[in-house]
Input
Amino acid sequence: MSSDQLPSMVKCTTRHVRIFAACVDNGVLVPVNDKLTLDVDPDNEFLWNDGALQQVQQCFREQVEAYGGRPLNDYNLRRIGTTLENLIRQLLHSGVIAYNPDGRVMNYSMGLPQQDTPQPR
Output
């Protein structure tokens, strides 16, 4: 992605993904025009494993590469964020990740959790 000037930090915030045109320096986001930084599930709504996080990060890298050369703007970042949200939904529905029962809020933003139902006898 490219941008000639960034008047302020360009970002995309969805329910479970935050993307910033910034880098992290000593724990602080510093606006830059040549790097995107990803924050996955900032509210800890889900229980993650390394494999699931790696899938989201890999998808992010692929999306950034696919959008290479396009303007670094809210619209393109939102499209990347939406793609990542869809992947997170797939991971949840396939049982790769689960809702965090110790989460701050249980709002089931991606649908009610799947429960095993007893089979009739």
